[in-house]
Design brief:
Elements lengths: L4 H15 L11 E2 H8 L5 H13 L3 E5 L7 H12 L6 H4 L6 H8 L16 H23 L4 H11 L3 H27 L6 H8 L6 H7 L12 H11 L2 E6 L9 E4 L9 E6 L5 E7 L1 H4 L1
Parallel strand pairs: 3-5
Antiparallel strand pairs: 1-2, 2-6, 3-4, 5-6
Length: about 300
């Protein structure tokens, strides 16, 4: 895909920010959305004009934007922050008694899961991997429960901000999400093999040469998320199914096309909550906040 000079320069800037010691905030403070747009997209290239039009459309519904740290966990960070920010109750799948037994249950059935790569802890033995992932899942349930029980919106937001300033806990939550994605992928793969109906994205997920089954998906994709790569489009669907959330994304570079607002999944369950993200390039995600009064009414 051809990219003009302005886009290339912006990508270099994002990379340098992600690597700089002073740009370590996971979720930056909110900023007026059009002010942010005018600061970031001053040029007159076709791409810049399209992005500005996209921001103008988003500004009809949201007043502010919060910038998300642009590392390879970016999609996880944006999605989880939004989900926790609006959490009013613990999702059903987190209430399950068997939830924290997932690592043990899966490892007893699939020997290849021993090769799951933990963050900065490669080559761990099976027992250690099982226990570590269980800790991540327990932490996810605990944090989700605690934040969902906070009634005041300001206090809830403060709790989320505090959580996403604790790097160790934050990255542990992302590892939990990755394991939930693997579990969902295994369920979908087995359902398809036994002739059950599965969503279209599941066919696409396992149609790739690099992920024709859950084992390959783990080795070639999930093990690399957060380390050497982020989430691809089809994996955004998998994340949505794992969380049982609809992820609505304003894809600004697709402004004035049918793909400007994309839903993951595109046929969501009616009772799934919705989180909203913004992307300029399908690689880096930010979050819109403060829904406009007219929109709320």
């Amino acid at each position: 895909m051809y990219r003009d000079e302005e886009e290339i320069e912006r990508e270099k800037m994002l990379l340098s920010e992600a690597n700089s010691s002073e740009y370590k905030l996971s979720v930056s403070p909110e900023m007026d959305i059009m002010e942010y747009c005018m600061k970031e997209w001053r040029g007159n290239t076709p791409a810049a004009k399209r992005i500005r039009k996209g921001y103008e459309a988003v500004a009809q519904k949201f007043a502010s934007i919060r910038r998300i740290r642009g590392d390879n966990y970016c999609a996880f960070r944006a999605t989880l922050f939004q989900a926790l920010s609006q959490a009013a109750q613990l999702p059903r799948w987190l209430q399950s008694k068997d939830f924290t037994m997932l690592p043990e249950n899966l490892l007893s059935k699939y020997d290849w899961i021993k090769q799951w790569q933990l963050r900065q802890k490669p080559g761990k033995r099976m027992g250690e991997i099982k226990d570590e992932i269980k800790e991540y899942l327990i932490l996810l349930r605990k944090k989700w429960k605690n934040i969902s029980e906070i009634k005041g919106p300001l206090e809830k937001q403060e709790a989320c901000d505090k959580l996403f300033k604790n790097e160790e806990e934050e990255y542990s939550l992302y590892e939990a999400l990755k394991f939930l994605m693997l579990n969902t992928a295994i369920e979908l793969y087995n359902a398809d093999k036994s002739g059950k109906r599965v969503p279209v994205f599941s066919w696409l997920l396992f149609a790739r040469d690099t992920s024709s089954n859950p084992c390959q998906l783990m080795h070639n994709h999930l093990n690399h998320i957060g380390h050497s790569g982020g989430l691809e489009q089809v994996e955004m669907f998998l994340l949505a199914y794992a969380l049982q959330y609809t992820i609505q994304v304003y894809r600004l570079y697709k402004y004035s096309t049918d793909e400007f607002i994309t839903l993951y999944p595109n046929d969501p369950e009616e009772d799934w909550p919705v989180v909203t993200l913004i992307t300029e390039d399908d690689r880096h995600y930010n979050i819109p906040v403060r829904m406009c009064q007219e929109t709320m009414l």
